[in-house]
Amino acid sequence: MSKYRKIDVRIWNDAKFRDLSHNAKLVFFFLLTHPNMTALGAMRSTLSGLAEELDFELEAFREAFREAFAKGMVKHDSKACLIALPNFIKYNQPESPNVVKAWVNSLDLLPECDLKNDVISLSANALKGYSKAFREALPEAFLKTYPKSMPNQEQEQELNTNNNTRASFEKIETQGEYVAKPVRELFNMTLDWKPNQQTFSAIAMRNGLPVEYSDDRLAGFVSYWQAEPIELTQGQWENKFATYLKRPVLVPKEPKPKSFPKNQQPQHDDYIQPPLYVPKPKVENPATPEQIKVIMDEMRRKIAGGE
Questions:
Q1: How many alpha carbons lie under 13 Å from residue 171 in its C-beta half-sphere?
Q2: Element (H, E) at 184
């Protein structure tokens, strides 16, 4: 874990980052500069623990984290308590092959899960275009601990060209990345869940739904079912998501202004009765200036005479 991190100032030009709320921007910078973040751009932590570190309400932190997650800026495995930043190495590149060899120390700090394999794959892909010394350093370091996680050239080519998987697994393609999930395995809803692009397209067409869906609808579905102790298969979750998309989006109505009966006063402390308008009495036949002067002179004469 390095003490210094590189943050590209062009991040403020990135559309995904600009669309984040202020809380989501803070959470993303917090993850990027967290002391426990390893050189691979991944660390073991929980959302509740991170929320306490920032003195955030848990639900507010989850909502901010979900924004960055929906845009692919953050990956998360809630069961393994692993958080990863896919573009971390892109902006924190190793300065020498020895740095690459030291990546194996970071692997020991990450729990075993599919996301960890993704981190290893992303790290390997990040060195494309580097010199031979860098490329040779990476397999040596990774194979020392995880010899089965690094595919050889034939396996890598098969992964890119073959759309079929083993009988017990399906391939989910999300933004050019592949994640293996058991087809018949029951699991609870997780924050990183997404429908299979191919199978959900068929489900959507069968239900008369558009294939594309918004990140907000997916986030709302995941957020609701994540709190429910229900275990379903991948296909069952996709069918449930299609049912969710059939529901109309409810737009909150604007509240109507309060109205009170004429003879009934409102019982609110913060309600102030507006003052009533009382017109000034109309004076008939007002005195002229000459008449006023005569009256004033008469009053002065009486006061001077002691009357």
A1: 14
A2: none
Q: What is the DSSP string of 37-80?
A: --TTSEEE--HHHHHHHTT--HHHHHHHHHHHHHTTS-EEETTT
User: pTM to 2 decimals?
Assistant: 0.49
pLDDT in tens, 57-75: 999 999 999 999 998 899 9
Tokens encoding 58? 């848990």
How many Å apart are CA 123 and CA 139, to the nearest integer?
11
Q: Which two tokens stand for residue 254?
A: 């604007």
Using CA atoms, how far residue 19 sits from 13, 67, 78, 185, in Å, is: 11, 9, 25, 36
Non-local CB neighbours of 43 within 8 Å, separated by 6+ positions: 34, 36, 37, 82, 83, 84, 109, 110
Contact criterion met (CB below 8 Å) for 185 and 178: no
Compute CA 60 distance to the chain's CA centroid, rounded to the nearest angstrom: 10
Distance CA 284, CA 267 (A): 43
Angle between the 58-70 and 215-226 helix axes, to the nearest 10 degrees?
140
21-39 pLDDT, tens digit each: 999 999 999 999 999 999 8
